[in-house]
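User: For this week's homework, look closely at the record that follows, marking any run of repeated tokens, and judge whether sequence predicts the tokens.
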Amino acid sequence: MVNFLGDSSEVNANMEEKESVIKTHFEKFITFIRDHWKLISIGGVIILLLMISVFLITFFAVRGSYESGVHFGVREILIMHVSSLHNDSLDNGNDDYLEFPTTTVKTAKPSSTTTLKSLTNPVFTTTSGKIGKIHVTFLCIAPLTCTNNFTMVNGKCWMLINNSSIRSDADKMCKTYNGATLVSIRNADENQALTDFLKDENINTLWTGLYCFGETNITACIWDIQAGSAANYSSFKVGYPDADYGRCVFYIGNGTDIGQWENEECGETMPFVCELPPTVHEGTCDFLYNSHCYFRIDMMKNITDSQHFCLSRCSNLVSIHSANENRFIQSIYDTNFTNIAIGGFASSKDYMIWMDGSPTDYNNIQFSYAGSCVIMAAGTTDTGYWYTRPCNETFWFVCDRPAGFSC
């Protein structure tokens, strides 16, 4: 007969022996900690400090390279669908039918003056269609600069016009410089930068691009071309804004109130500063704005042929992503011109897509007529407004592409 009892006793003895060994090791570990806790604590703090130092060095080194003024000729990374519009798209009995194929080119369409935060190697892409084969290298590393003899100040391009003008004339004068606007001031740094910019000019007052619609409410003070309100930052003098004095806001450039704002009747005259976004420089552009090249094409073509023409120059029919860019497009045409084709396709007033695949983050369609292709009114009383027309009608047009890449 098997002696289960004896086996059980032996197993219990082995378990007790193992527990004793474990207990002994644990007691030695506790004793070691008690005897050396100071050295262990110092070592842990040193390791922690080393880890923090490595993190901070890496963080500031990378941040410095981002903010060093290097610009990649694009405003944001996205996949831009280059639309090869087929000639037969207008021969199927539907004037407003446009075919968007799946061929894509990796490039970008800008929407602001943002410096690119991350990008790796250049992308070389080839696309083909009825217009032939296009080879595009779109990435360009270049410093930001100012055009039109403007001066780079705190990431913006400014020009002082020391010629006293009423506010409306000041705005018109700025527009002649690639659609520039009157100066906008969005934070305390920019407010101080303007003071520094004017310090040797003996300027007492200066028009800004801020207009107040309300009596005393700062949120009713709006920057030109619907570029936001003064709610997030203002430097109004105590007691302002006050519509009793007028609705146009000016900047005080001298005296004890230097750097503060007041409002005045818009018919008063004073100097002004015009503002443009910085851009990548490229000598081959017909027009250069906010790191994009624009080509004014003074030929009458329907929308399909216009897009084919733009593609042959490694560009697309222009897509417009801000009121500032819309103002710039207006500025490159004579005031007596009327209809300009842009690269929008709208099934309704409130729904539009761009032929280059970029996001619809700005829409200025005011009238929805027959047709679905978007046209800009550039020389009428509705200057800058968009409306729709049949896609087989012919118009002058604008092509655009990111600045700084070869085709």
Notes: Residues 71-144+287-402 form a domain with the Mannose-Binding Protein A; Chain A fold (CATH 3.10.100.10). Residues 64-140 have pLDDT under 50 and may be disordered. Residues 65 and 122 are 18 Å apart (CA to CA).
